Amino acid sequence: MEFASRPSSLSSVGLAPPAPSSTQASQQNVRYYHPAVLSQIREDCMAQKLYLRASEFTEIKDMVLWAGTFNVNAKKPVSIAEAAKLLYWLRPKHDNDHLSPDIVAVGFQEIVDLNAVNVVVNNTSGPRSAQWEESILAALNSHMSDDAYEVVLHKHLVGILLLVFVKRDHLPFVTDVVGSTAGVGIMGMMGNKGGVAVRMTLYDSTMCFVCSHLAAHTHNVAGRNADFANILSKIEFRDSIYDELNPMGSQEAADHALTIHMHDFIFWLGDLNYRLVEDANFTVDDCFAHVEKQNLDVLLARDQLNQEREKGNVFHGFEEGPIRFPPTYKFQAGTSFYDRRPEKKIRAPAWCDRILWKAKADTVALKHYGAAMELDMSDHKPVAALFTVKVKYEVDEKKDAVQREISRELDKWESDNKPKISISDHNLLHFDAVTYLVPQTKTFLIENTGLVVAHFQLAPKLQESAVSKSWLTVLPTYGMIPPKEKVELKVTVHVMLDAVHALSSGRDTLDDTLILRVANGADHFLVVSGDFLPSCFGCSLEQLVVQVEPVRSVKSIKREAAVSQKIPKELWRMVDALYTHGLDAPNIFLDTDQSEAAVLREALDTGAPFPVHRPQSMAALLVHWLQSLRESVVPEASLSADTTASVTVDGLATVHFNTFIYVSSFLREVLLHTPRNLLNTSKIAHVFGRCLLGYSVTQGPSPKIDMMERMLVHFLTTGTL
Question: The pTM is what?
Fold first, then answer.
């Protein structure tokens, strides 16, 4: 049933409010923060200001990066003895072939056959990955450099393999290396298609490499777009240092994982499988003809990836170099001829194999982008790109000097004056028309009007442990405001089950006073009030049966019935709606969808006609209404192992007895439609055995619930107690 959760933690100053601890609760009268808290807040502020002045202590290293992708079609790795063949790919002849890469990122697809066994068991990928790593390392160290490269990390997922190497000179400056995988193939999760990613910090720049193999087939553009989006959302790096990319240094940030987008440099390579658009005006034969004539511009205009990027559907913000090489798929393995064998399915040539990147402007320069047409082991040709990248390098001496300057600046701020703040709206906030389970948020704007940093904290009132009543949430609960700056204090009123009981009975009102404590300054009192619109949720049965009009009606407040109704009219309305439209709806009481709950609650409270809705939504409303009653239909204390069901029910107060019989009789009617609604006695007893006792449907078993379920099963089966 519907239970809205409290708003998640959020702070406009980058500080997540901690849960009140016993230590904090015992120090309510202390007029300042614990020194450790103040120290942490100061460090957070210093980290932010240091980040903003990073250009003063950061230098740039121009480094060379090589990235390549190769779908090897499950062919065996090149042996170490023949590793020189890979130089066609790793170091092709071009104007910049004199550049020696500092970083090498090698991506493979289909290193094993993508049969069902390999996809499910994945026991051959490891050996193949190791063999390819040995071959690439041999080519790099024996033919491109004198034993200069070492592997940073290799990561594989079934047929996808990503290897990242750096020159040994840079290895001490490589930190926070983490790999991650995301399967998006069969059932949206298997590894026959997906992505592998490796992230690292090189000097003081962060890099992320992604190797992916996306959905096949010419017309499956939407599938490829979806695979890209899924990889982007699924890949997370949970073992790395989040604060590297979050200068605020908050605890909230530390609880999160890094994602692909949270890096200075992103290089995405792989068999992306985008093809050429074919139609009646452009056939496979036309494609071959343009390839033979080297009319690449004509073909590129029909490239699906180019078209999807132009539409903004995929690789938003990424760049790709100009393509001046022939399509890299599909070749007859062992040759450099496109596969046009009549006994095979003839596919139009396409640039399936691509390399893209994303970085800040002017930090990446493409030096070469091409295909190694000489390598003929696969039905794909490998593709490579050579870049120069501007890597950040922090100079410790300069950074220390900036830190000292910032520290002196903070010291002066803190010593000049006592902190002073002003609060918007005269310290008052009022919420109109607050309804059950519907949150409302407003803000106080706090401005530091003094010359010194203002540390603030919400403090509990005397002899209380919480800073506010249960229906009120304020974020952030503490923070720091530099002079002349402002912070928003988000105040959310959210009446949930515990609060609605107190409000409907008159034991509480929507009024609270918050204490905003400023370290070394004055306390400020923030008054929050609201108008709660009455609701039948959280009321008692006795309260509802004496009201003639809907609870939201003005008449219902002024006039009560001379004679009580047998059952609440709200119960009758819900059951009538279900009886009319819902008896045949499948699994009507097992659906947890709450998308229509708010509008149905509003109609029930105001007496308005129910809008068009799913029967399952009305059933969920009924269950939640029963669960929300201030006093359950069957009080738990009335259940006893020594008492029969008939004695238990006969002993109920009149309105509780009537409600129990009415609901149970309706449930017997529901069971007459079992062939269509798929319900049975056990399922219904599980749900209503809990909500009639005032429990959530998710409540675990207990002796009282077991007794209630048995009583319901007996009544639903026999019609008697």
Answer: 0.55
